């Protein structure tokens, strides 16, 4: 669940630290008090784009930080791993957004992340619904994913999609070959020449650097012999060589050591220096002798280097690119020369994969058709609890003409709020008030399958009232048994059912307006419910107390 939300300098909020608890959390307050800031902060956590207009006047940055405690971090860790981040080993995830005047930054567990990664994490963390946030429920793709979650189709759907992708890839390959025109004689000749020319060179990518080094030594052999010989002579033991002078130094030091043995600590490196220089002289002499390269070998190396350069100019920047070009040309040549045979082979392979796709799709279809009536019945029951006493709801399964990535069929949520009227697609007939309750009914029916830890309902009860509002509150409270639920509401019937009740209030201090959030209980909570009921005397207070008593 979301255990902590910290907001700093966001709109009217200068600083807010909110420690939430489990179950249904109610948030109330007068219109304009700043309840929308909380929703805005959560949207930032979910990866929504932000701009500097959100920053509180007079400040340079605003910050939102959310701490989630995860019971099962497997899905979150999978997303983190794809982004190259460390997993949540202790089950704690910290998301932080910093909005600045010139740049925005986002962090997960103190590591910088992209906005796209934050969005992907947000899909697993928070399910947010407002008066206009029901488009996902109207999408037939989303409806199908809801049915699959209810039916437990994850494993079988993954298997089907893998088979379907293989079939579609094969069909694409087959279609490309069918559409490909026969190659001209000139193209065939060119392809044969390119493959033959590269094959004749007998290229090995690893030999390019080796040949280049050997050629460089061969082409500069005279100068290398001259330089190494000069260095060896300078070290030599003739009258003016470095070693001659060192040997004299060595004799003098030995005489010193005879007179004062303590000096050995200072001179002990001399013997090593003499030995190393003697070894260097011998090594340079050997190197000079090895440089005696056969002119024929030098010519061969030069020809090899020139061949490399010619091939690279024609086919690529290095030998690996030349060989890649050769493979492409050979594949094209093979496809053209053996087009008929390849067509026959691809046709057979595509037919085999189509058969496997149909088989996997039928297994998926059977599971969906078995679950659809059960889900329809479950949602219908939830709708009756929410005031649709005589409504009808059906999960209709519709076959596709061709297999799709989602299966052999699609689905449509059909809804009939009024008895005697035919059921129509939900996207065509539901009003905003109805769609809010249908969404809540669907969420309630899928409560066990929905793994999202936090659900946020932002005034989805805006177009209902009375007993319906209370039914909505009860449904949210029931969802709170399996999820953490935050309900931002104007209805006392809903707020009274919350396990925890917070009030957002706007105040003016020091000539500045700010929003603050604080918990209410006891008499404070009754006073807030009285305000929500429209004020009044003892009658309103008694009604507020009654709402709380019934909720308890």
Question: What report would you give on this structure?
Answer:
The structure is a single chain. By secondary structure, the chain is α/β, with parallel strands linked by helices. It is 56% helix and 19% strand. The chain has helices at residues 35-45, 74-82, 115-125, 135-138, 140-151, 154-179, 185-201, 207-219, 221-235, 242-259, 264-267, 269-290, 295-315, 319-337, 339-385, 426-429, 432-445, 466-479, 492-495, 522-532, 538-551, and strands at residues 2-10, 13-19, 24-28, 61-69, 92-100, 104-108, 111-112, 126-129, 392-404, 407-416, 424-425, 454-458, 484-488, 500-509, 512-519. The strands form three sheets. Strands 2-1-4-5-6-7 form a six-stranded antiparallel sheet, covered by helices on one side. A six-stranded mixed sheet has the order 8-12-13-3-14-15. Helix 15 (339-385) crosses helix 17 (432-445). The longest helix has 47 residues, at 339-385. It is flat. The protein starts with a strand and ends with a helix. The model has no long low-confidence stretch (mean pLDDT 83). Residues 326-363 form a coiled coil. This is DNA repair protein RecN. May be involved in recombinational repair of damaged DNA.
